Amino acid sequence: MVDAFLGTSKAPGVGVRLAGPITTLFNEAGPDFPNRLVTLLSPYADWDKLGFSENTVTWWAAAALTVPQTEEVGQSVVDTLLQIACQDHLRPFIPVEIWALLKKRPSLPPRCRGRWVVGNYQ
């Protein structure tokens, strides 16, 4: 079921429409929310919303670090990391272990939100 949902979310324009519900889901999720789902959906959350806090970043990072690393997971983590890093109020809470995942050099899809956010970061 999770794979079907994730496949749908990657269709052109669908991920953007899901950003609001995903952001709400992140804010309400408990500690037993599936880590893989958190990791793979995180690029679609609106990280520039002020509702996200240190707790959200810490929770996301913990989930991302427990999921077995695949190309898809690596892309999701880097995409999300770029989005969070562009938020001055969230950047200090990114754990070193997440930054270390960049050493694995996962590729990013040509069209991803993280690239766009970094390209427009001032």
**Number of discrete helical segments:** 7
Give average pLDDT, whole number. 77
**Mass-distribution shape:** globular
The radius of gyration over CA amounts to: 13 Å
Largest sheet: none
Order of helices and strands: HHHHHHH
Number of domains: 1
Terminal CA distance: 39 Å
Low-confidence stretches: none
The percentage helix is 55-70%
List how many beta strands DSSP finds.
0
Task: Indicate the structural class.
Answer: mainly alpha
* Strand residue content: under 5%
Could you explain the architecture of this structure?
- With 122 residues, the chain is mainly alpha-helical.
- It has one domain.
- It is built from 7 helices and no strands.
- α3 packs across α5 and α5 runs parallel beside α7.
- It is globular and about 30 Å long.
- The mean pLDDT is 77.
Brief account:
With 122 residues, the protein is mainly α. It is 57% helix and 0% strand.
What's the arrangement of secondary structure elements?
Layout: H1 2-9, H2 14-28, H3 35-41, H4 54-66, H5 71-85, H6 96-100, H7 113-119
Helix pairs in contact: 3-4, 3-5, 5-7
Structural features:
122 residues, mainly alpha, 7 helices, 57% helix
